[in-house]
Amino acid sequence: MKKIVSVLALCALAACQTTPASTQVSNTASLTGNFMADLNAFRASQGRGPVQQSAKLRRAAQLHADDMVARGYFSHQSPGGPNGDTMSERMIAGGCRLQAGAENIAQGQTSEAAVLTAWQNSSGHRRNMLGASYTEFGLGRTKNTWVLLFSSGC
Q1: What pLDDT, in 10s, does the model give residues 3-25?
Q2: Which of 150, 144, 110, 152 is closest to 25 using CA atoms?
């Protein structure tokens, strides 16, 4: 009996292992910096002004991408998420004074150019990228899960 309890306890501990702190889920090294130029070229081609990268939005986007990959979901909603359940909550938690905002998410694209093209070809995502009131953006990527946040007032 003691052996069975010991084996069960060992299995339970194995199932509860956490990711070591040195193991990062994020794959931000592949962000090239061309994304802002390409995004702004697209906006300009549609008569919109440029947006600037925001460190606060980038961090909020990155944390949402990290969370989706770590917890195995793909959604604008993140019930019980560490930085809020909704886009607005995540942006406010990141330090934004949210006046207007939008979020694009994508999964599977392997480059900034591919994800930008996918969003341009989707009416809702395209509308977000062309929002006239947006002045800033943040892009996050974990593996091939992408989050793009727009705001005015961050």
Answers
A1: 332 322 323 222 222 222 223 33
A2: 144
**107 has a pLDDT exceeding 50:** yes
Decide if 108 contacts 21 (C-beta within 8 A). no
DSSP string, 13-48: HHHTPPPPTT-----GGG--SHHHHHHHHHHHHTT-
Instruction: Tell me the pTM.
Output: 0.79
Handedness of CA 86, 142, 117, 129 (dihedral sign): positive
Condensed to tens digits (0 to 9), the pLDDT of residues 26-53 reads: 444 345 669 999 999 999 999 999 999 9
Provide Rg for the chain, Cα atoms.
Answer: 19
Strands 136-142 and 100-107: unpaired
Angle between helices 34-45 and 112-120 (to 10 degrees): 20
What is the rounded distance in angstroms from the CA atom of residue 62 to the CA atom of residue 82? 12
